[in-house]
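Good morning C.,

I know you're traveling, so I'll keep this short. The sequence:
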Amino acid sequence: MISEPELNLKYSETILFLKKEFGLELPNKLAAIHKRKFNSVMENGRNRQKNSNSLKFTNSPSDENLLATINLFTNNHTSFLRSPKQFKFLKQYAIPSIINESSKSIPFKLRIWSAAAASGEEPYSILLTIFDDVQKAKYNVDILATDINTEALKKGFDGVYKKKKIIRELGPYYNNYFTNADDESSQFGENLRSRIDFRWLNLNSNFYPVNARFHIIFCRNVLYYLCEKRRSVIIKNLVSCLYPGGYLFLGLSETSMVDCPEIVSVNPGIYKKVT
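The tokens, ready to paste straight into the viewer:
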């Protein structure tokens, strides 16, 4: 049995570690919830076994306790087609603009990065939005999906979601993109899952291990959880990974956190790289 002073000390050390290594600054309103979860894990020893059967993703740390701690403190609440107007802009304006400005080759290879992919709803939403065009060979697409939560990445990699969630958030139109996984769940077909590369990546790193630049980067609803001095650094790093003329998609509530002369606002939460 771990004493309360020991638990408090370990919790404080963990919070400081997450801020230093990952730039995370947990909102005060969630502190009590995280503290209870942390104490339960420490007392029951679940942090040593929760990750034991998870997939090993490219670049992910080998320390199981570290991964379990990250998983415990990162929020992966998300949904399909979240902020639908941004996906409409992606299909109707961003991609046509990029193709017109960037390519003379056919078919064009579009590179998209979902930099905080959580459990996969965002990268799959991106792919569903443009999949008709991809199938018609208007262009090809590579999608990179990264996160620091390995449990969330595994869910995205598996592509299995509750049928009620799919109907509620996507509607019946998308049923033909899924196969039955069991009575309550469906799985994205291999033709979609194979187009998304799920990897572990820490946005607080000084170097992002990506092979080339991207035309579009989604990093939505992440800045809110980062300490203020790291936000501008991470935005700058993300912008450096964009081609000129590329687009950065942020959360609708994060526009006041942006201060980068290389990008201009073109739509709520959407920025275009101009230099």
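Safe travels,
E.
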